[in-house]
Write a structure and sequence with these properties.
This protein has 465 residues and is an all-alpha fold. 72% of the residues lie in helices and 0% in strands.
């Protein structure tokens, strides 16, 4: 039995060696091929639960630098990215929201309204996300708003990490909220920072997309996805606690017992609302979202709402910073060294003679699947959106259809891996869900949304355009 434990890592090592010593295909350089080998082996170690994500990332970084595959400065570049620092600051602020009692108060209000079942809570979390999304040009910032609410809901359902009750409700709610961000980001042009970038690229190719036309194209498939995602996760990743008929009444009693809002809650609420306002305005004014988050955290620490001891206890924040920054750096280097472009250009040779509907379907499917190699939706779009759009249009795919579906895919493919979006990091850090579960159930969500947007979204966009 002890020997069998070594089979998976041994097979992974043999796979890595086989790929490493295989001559690079296409026009890919040897160093880029070796970087791909390290990256895909790291993903395999996480997917098959051979190593924790932090251990796999650290080993990948060390091997990449020591083998000379990547320069040290480029390997460490992810640690200076502001959006990664935003994740960490938002994670810490969210714990202050919980500690102050504000998160508990908010979660109790939600339970009082929608708490008859865990499924109802799942729908209410995504509905909240959809409503606030147009004012947030950053889905990472939005996850910082939703996470403390979900965390509070889990605790108020007596579902906690560390006492084997995480599957009671918390795991389902965390996974559902994370999945919801993928459709809320695609519903509104302003709900994701990279959406307007894609619209700008399409504009240069003669494809015009406005705020209103985006919303019209997105509304039908998004609402269907909203209806199905919580239900599907409820079936394949079910909470142990299903019905909570007494929860609304208990929540009302608990709110009465909490009494008036405390000093720490007032301070936290003021800081939180100020952060939300500044994050919302960051799409209009040059406001750095990470600086806003750190400023809010500083005020909470200065007013002793979130103390130094609290800061020291949040080891998951440091873990998240390390693994996400490393994987982002490796993924970015793959793109910069031309690996993604080489695959995309090679793929076009197989499209000759196919009808545009087949070209369209294959391009969107590959665009989604290739996100396994990216640790940023923005990097994915910047590297491949223009290429895939040009290939599709040249093959006869209607321009608006091709552009919109690629833009939707940039958002709905986010849960395909733990590192598929910066949003995922904060949910993974909660401890309620594991990296392997995100690969499995996040992949299922991605498949569901892909089918919805292709089967329903395609004729809907064609009918409107």
């Amino acid at each position: 039995m002890h020997i069998k434990r070594f089979y998976p890592p041994l097979l992974l090592i043999l796979f890595a060696l086989g790929v490493w010593f295989t001559p690079p295909p296409l026009s890919i350089s040897l160093s880029t091929w070796h970087l791909f080998t390290i990256f895909i082996t790291t993903i395999g170690a996480i997917l098959f639960n051979i190593l924790p994500i932090i251990a796999a990332a650290i080993m990948a970084l060390a091997i990449s630098v020591l083998s000379g595959v990547i320069e040290p400065a480029k390997a460490y570049a992810g640690f200076s990215e502001s959006f990664i620092l935003l994740i960490i600051a938002a994670f810490l602020v969210s714990h202050a929201v919980h500690k102050s009692g504000l998160g508990k108060r908010l979660s109790l209000h939600i339970i009082r309204k929608f708490g008859h079942s865990t499924l109802g809570l799942g729908y209410s979390v995504i509905a909240t996300d959809i409503l606030i999304a147009p004012a947030f040009p950053s889905n990472t910032a939005r996850s910082g708003v939703l996470y403390p609410i979900v965390y509070g809901l889990a605790h108020d359902c007596n579902s906690k990490v560390g006492d084997h009750t995480h599957r009671r409700a918390g795991s389902y709610l965390m996974m559902t909220s994370m999945a919801g961000l993928t459709i809320s980001s695609g519903l509104w042009l302003t709900a994701m920072a990279v959406n307007p970038v894609g619209v700008g690229i399409a504009e240069k190719m003669g494809i015009h997309i406005t705020f209103g036309s985006w919303l019209l194209y997105a509304i039908v498939p998004t609402m269907i996805a909203f209806a199905l995602i919580p239900w599907m996760l409820y079936r394949i990743y079910p909470p142990e606690m299903k019905e909570t008929p007494d929860a609304p009444q208990k929540a009302a009693v608990a709110l009465e017992h909490m009494g008036h809002i405390s000093r720490n809650e007032w301070i936290t609420a003021g800081v939180f609302l100020s952060m939300l306002t500044l994050w919302a305005l960051s799409g209009v004014f040059p406001i750095d979202k990470a600086a806003v988050a750190f400023g809010g955290l500083g005020i909470l620490m200065a007013t002793k709402v979130f103390g130094v001891d609290d800061f020291r206890s949040q080891g998951e924040a440091l873990s998240t910073l390390i693994w996400f920054a490393i994987l982002f750096g490796l993924s970015t280097q793959l793109a910069e060294q031309g690996f993604m472009n080489a695959i995309a250009e090679h793929f076009t040779h197989y499209l000759t003679g196919l009808s545009w509907i087949w070209v369209y379907t294959l391009l969107i499917a590959v665009y989604v699947l290739i996100h396994y190699l990216f640790v940023s939706q923005s990097a994915h779009l910047l590297a491949l959106f223009g290429i895939f759009l040009a290939i599709g249009v040249q093959a006869g795919v209607p321009g608006e259809l091709m552009a919109m579906m690629l833009l939707f895919a940039t958002n709905f493919n986010a849960t395909i891996t733990p590192q598929g979006s910066s949003c995922n990091a904060i949910y993974l850090s909660s401890g309620y869900i594991t990296a392997r579960e995100i690969y499995l159930y996040g992949g299922a969500v991605t498949l569901l949304t892909f089918l919805i947007f292709m089967i329903v979204g395609t004729p809907w966009i064609l009918a409107l355009s």
